[in-house]
Specification:
Elements lengths: L2 H4 L23 E9 L2 E8 L4 E5 L5 E14 L2 E6 L3 E4 L5 E16 L2
Antiparallel strand pairs: 1-2, 2-7, 3-7, 4-5, 4-6, 4-7
Length: 114
């Protein structure tokens, strides 16, 4: 990942951001770009090729997933939720969750550590 991004993405401040253009799709891969990184939270843009995903895991904080392109299945405690562009879901802290690309999709993940 680019050092400027890792150091807090200060170069992005005050600029109009087009999330869909901030990460490209790559065949057979999940791509991420952290746009805000701080002690209290992060905002990361992801792209998932069709069939890719993140395996089931838990996190100690709530996380907001906003789908900005395509379609994904988000499972929370075993319950599937289909999300399309323009839809969002909150993954509760300490509950197992996973993501799967039904088709190529991009999302914004906002994690606030509070």
């Amino acid at each position: 990942m680019d050092n400027a991004v890792e150091s807090g993405a200060g170069y992005l401040k005050g600029q109009v951001l087009v999330f869909q253009e901030m990460v490209e799709y790559q065949e057979g891969a999940v791509v991420s770009r952290e746009i805000i990184k701080g002690e209290k939270g992060t905002v990361t843009i992801f792209s998932f090729d069709r069939g890719q995903g993140l395996s089931e895991h838990t996190a100690p904080f709530d996380a907001l997933v906003q789908v900005i392109d395509g379609e994904a299945e988000v499972r929370i405690s075993g319950k599937p939720h289909r999300l399309k562009a323009g839809e969002a879901i909150i993954m509760p802290a300490n509950q197992p969750h996973s993501l799967h690309a039904v088709e190529k999709f991009k999302m914004v993940l906002t994690l606030i550590r509070a």
